[in-house]
Write a structure and sequence with these properties.
The chain is mainly β. Helix content is about 0%, strand content about 30%. Strand 3 and strand 4 form a beta hairpin.
Length: about 100
Amino acid sequence: MEATIGDKICIHGNTVGHADKHGEIIEVRGDRGEPPYVVRFPDGQERTIFPGPDAYIIPRQRQSPLLPGGALVVSGRVHARSGGAGVRGVPRQRDR
């Protein structure tokens, strides 16, 4: 598991009736983005956690560059600007 400051973490409730817990990673204490993480939860509490297999990381939104014509590149895929117009010189990728 790897994370960076600003990523979100979701820890699934492991007992029936317990809701998932969501928080923001505010500090990474391990090497190369590995745990432990200091997490701030919505109620303002901060905890140092070593996430188990019931947790996953939600990467923060990273700014993606715009191509000429206003197309947006997200995760290596080209998305046409609103209105559905294509972008010259950029092949469209088909949904898989």
